[in-house]
C-alpha cells in the first residue's frame, strides 16, 4: 500500500513539472547599442564625402559628410551639389551666436529643390560648433535642400534636426559669414563641390567698385 502511494505521488509530481519549459526557445540576446562613426578631420581621406563651399568672402570651407549618420541626407546634398544647385545661393538667415542657414535658391527661406522632401534621419550626434544639419518646416519629414552650420553648440536641436556632418577646415570662413535675416550684404556660395571631383576654388567676380584702376583713369582730362 505504502509503495503504491509513493508511486502515485511520484506520478503527480511529474504531472506538475513544467516539462514544456525546457523546450521553449531561448530569449534572443540583447541588441548591441548602435554606434556611430567618428568625424575624420583629415581632408586627404575619403574625398567623396567632403563638401567644399567656396564663399564670396574669398575662403573655402571643407565639411565632412557622414553617410553613417544620415545616408539619405548626405546623398541629397551630394546630388544637389553636383547639379550646381547651390552655386550662387546666399546665406539668407544668419544669427549671431547660433547658426548660418543657406540652401534656398530664392533667398527667402521658403524655397527648395524640385526633389521630394526627405524623411527625417534624426540621430544622437550632438549639434556642436561646426555641425552641419538639415533645416525643415513644421513637419519632421520636410527637409529638402536647406541646411545650417552651427557657430556654437545648441544641444536642444539634437534629435529634432538631422545632423549629417561637421566642418573640418575653414571654420574661420564660416565665422565671417555676414549676419542678418536676411543680411544687408549676404555671403554667397560661389561654388559648392565634392572634393573627389577636384574642382579648383572659385572666387567671386570683382564688383564694379573694386575694378582695376588703370593709369588712363588717373590722367587729367585734356584741356580745351
TrEMBL record:
PROSITE patterns (alphabetical): CSA_PPIASE_2
Role this protein plays: PPIases accelerate the folding of proteins. It catalyzes the cis-trans isomerization of proline imidic peptide bonds in oligopeptides.
Domain PPIase cyclophilin-type: 60-202
Domain of life: Bacteria
Chemical reaction(s) catalysed: [protein]-peptidylproline (omega=180) = [protein]-peptidylproline (omega=0)
Transit peptide as UniProt keyword: no
EC primary class: isomerase
Organism classification: Bacteria, Pseudomonadati, Pseudomonadota, Alphaproteobacteria, Sphingomonadales
Keywords: Isomerase, Rotamase, Signal
Signal peptide: 1-21
Transmembrane segments: none
Protein name: Peptidyl-prolyl cis-trans isomerase
GO molecular function: peptidyl-prolyl cis-trans isomerase activity
Enzyme Commission code: 5.2.1.8
Pfam families: Pro_isomerase
Organism: Tsuneonella litorea
Amino acid at each position: 500500500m505504502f509503495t503504491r502511494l509513493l508511486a502515485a505521488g511520484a506520478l503527480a509530481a511529474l504531472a506538475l513539472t513544467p516539462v514544456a519549459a525546457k523546450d521553449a526557445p531561448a530569449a534572443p540576446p540583447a541588441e548591441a547599442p548602435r554606434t556611430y562613426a567618428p568625424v575624420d578631420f583629415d581632408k586627404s581621406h575619403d574625398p567623396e564625402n567632403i563638401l567644399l563651399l567656396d564663399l564670396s568672402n574669398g575662403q573655402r570651407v571643407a565639411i565632412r559628410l557622414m553617410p553613417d549618420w544620415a545616408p539619405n541626407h548626405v546623398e541629397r546634398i551630394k546630388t544637389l551639389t553636383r547639379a550646381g544647385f547651390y552655386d550662387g545661393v546666399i546665406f539668407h538667415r544668419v544669427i549671431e551666436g547660433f547658426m548660418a542657414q543657406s540652401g534656398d535658391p530664392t533667398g527667402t527661406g521658403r524655397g527648395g529643390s524640385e526633389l521630394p522632401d526627405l524623411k527625417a534621419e534624426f540621430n544622437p550626434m550632438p549639434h556642436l560648433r561646426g555641425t552641419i544639419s538639415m533645416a525643415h518646416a513644421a513637419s519632421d519629414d520636410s527637409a529638402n535642400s536647406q541646411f545650417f552650420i552651427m557657430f556654437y553648440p545648441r544641444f536642444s536641436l539634437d534629435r529634432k534636426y538631422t545632423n549629417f556632418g561637421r566642418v573640418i577646415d575653414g571654420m574661420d570662413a564660416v565665422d565671417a559669414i555676414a549676419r542678418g535675416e536676411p543680411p544687408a550684404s549676404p555671403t554667397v556660395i560661389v561654388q559648392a563641390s565634392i572634393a573627389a571631383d577636384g574642382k579648383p576654388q572659385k572666387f567671386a567676380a570683382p564688383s564694379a567698385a573694386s575694378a582695376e584702376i588703370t593709369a588712363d583713369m588717373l590722367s587729367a582730362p585734356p584741356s580745351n
